[in-house]
Amino acid sequence: MNSKRNMLVYDRSSTGLWVALIFLVSLNLRPAIAAVGPVLAQMGTDLAWGEGVQGVLTAIPLIAFAVVSPLVTFLARRIGIDMSILLALLCIAAGDAIRSFGGGVGIWLGTVVFASAIAVGNVLVPVIAKRDYAGHVAMATGVYSGCITAGSATAGLLSAPLAQMWGGWRASLAFWSVPPLVVAVLWALRILHNRKIVVASAAVRNSPSAQSARSQSSRGVFARVLRRPMTWYVTAFMGLQSSAFYTMSNWMPSISASIGYDASTAGVHLFIFQGIGIFSGLLIPKLMNVRGNQVCAALTASAPMFIAGLGMLLLPHLMPVWAFVGGCAQGASLVVALALIALRGRDSAETVVLSGVAQSFGYLIASLGPLMFGVLVQATGGHHVPLMVFTFVAFLQCVVAVIVGRPSKM
Fold it and tell me: What's the whole-number mean pLDDT along residues 314-325?
């Protein structure tokens, strides 16, 4: 099957300002998660949860990512990529509301709902970026990754002040249901705009022969992607960098508080960690083709997290410094991970499958990070042992960075 027929599976590219809406979607892919860290201790006190239960709550989004990511391919094939994004935005908003106002059960149910919706965005945003910015994949990856980081940093900074201003963590978390609703309206307008362009091709795309060809092709692509060693290298890198990010996003405020910083200052440390990633994410694409490979970019993005882990262990009173150093790593590592998905996928069909596999198994690996950190804090009564494990994981990421940065010859 030629690539032209294969592309009929996917929506057409947008043009003009419509194409930039993907960056607004990216802004909504982390706030629902990042807003929890600064109020996690409040939630634990209010609900009588220990650190172990808190760790389970912080791991649920990553487990949902792992479970839902491989299913996104089927959703996109059924209703289209753009409609899948619209559905995801609406479910993020709904999940946020359920978590805040659904009582004890609602916290868990709402978290599953919005995390599953975010998983759809995680898988499809790189695909849309490669489709709509085919000649500038690294640049587009840097921008939308920066938007993801910006959304996360903003939520982390505002979560505690909003909880204080509005009388509790429920209202603070509920606030993050509003932005995805706004973007959903704009995305619906984009879909209507695109339908005017693609209506003429609908008959060809929905013909029985085209549907049969798509089914056979998708099975072949999936099997081919699974057989490639590079798929699992990309998956490992995605999992390790995500584990570091989500562990620190959820537990850095607690680490800062244990050293003696107040809640507001601990929130600033988290903002530094997440905010500086915007700039490192925009700068790292300049290293994405050094000597024809991505080793330099992947290692440059990974090493600072290892340094930050050592710093928090040995010189914890310099927490603002380690927040800055770790932030440089997390922003750049996300860009490298997502860019590798786009670069290692040979066409849009393969990129969708690779994105689903890498994010499914990658986030399953990542879910162990915040969960184990919480369990170890409760078991040992401190942060020293959990930070030792965290630093070792950051070292493993550096090792994988060297392997994944070399393009596959297969």
Answer: 95
Q: Please check whether residue 118 is in contact with residue 85, taking contact to mean a CB–CB distance below 8 angstroms.
A: no
- On the question of pLDDT at 196 being above 70, the answer is no
| Phi and psi torsions of 249, nearest 5° | -60, -35
Nearest CA to 158 out of 50, 31, 56, 22 is that of 31
Rg of the chain over all Cα atoms, to the nearest angstrom: 21
- Residue 194 has a CB neighbour count (10 Å cut-off) of 18
Q: What is the 3-class SS of 336-358, one letter each residue?
A: HHHHHHHHHCCCHHHHHHHHHHH
Integer Cα distance of 210 and 6 in angstroms: 9
**CB-CB neighbours of 48 under 10 Å:** 7
User: Could you tell me which of 409, 4, 405, 408 has the C-alpha nearest to residue 204?
Assistant: 4
Answer left, alpha or beta for residue 277, where phi above 0 means left and psi between -120 and 50 means alpha: alpha
pLDDT of 302 = 96
pLDDT category of residue 281 using cuts at 50, 70 and 90: confident
Mean pLDDT lowest among 55-64, 215-224, 330-339, 383-392:
215-224
204: tokens are 């060809």
Phi-psi region of 80 (alpha: psi -120 to 50; beta: other; left: phi over 0): left
Is-contact 142 23, C-beta < 8 A? no
| Average pLDDT across the chain, whole number | 85
Confidence label for 122 from pLDDT (cuts 50, 70 and 90): confident
Distance set, CA 269 to CA 9, 148, 185, 253, 273 (Å): 45, 18, 34, 7, 6
Would you call 156 helix, strand, or coil by DSSP?
helix
- Tell which residue, 223, 188, 215, has the closest CA to residue 9: 215
Which of these, 130, 150, 151, lies nearest to 139 by C-alpha position? 130
Give 228's DSSP letter. Answer: -
Site of tokens 């106002």: 101
pLDDT at 1: 41
Is residue 144 within 8 A of residue 23, CB to CB? The reply is yes
Average pLDDT over residues 347-366: 82
The identity of residue 144, as a single letter, is Y
Identify each DSSP E strand in 205-339 by its residue range: none
- Range among 1-5, 26-30, 55-59 rated most confident: 26-30
Answer yes or no: is pLDDT of 142 > 80. Answer: no
Would you state the structure tokens that stand for residue 219, as one six-digit string? 């099975």
Cα–Cα–Cα angle for 393, 396, 399, rounded to 5 degrees: 160
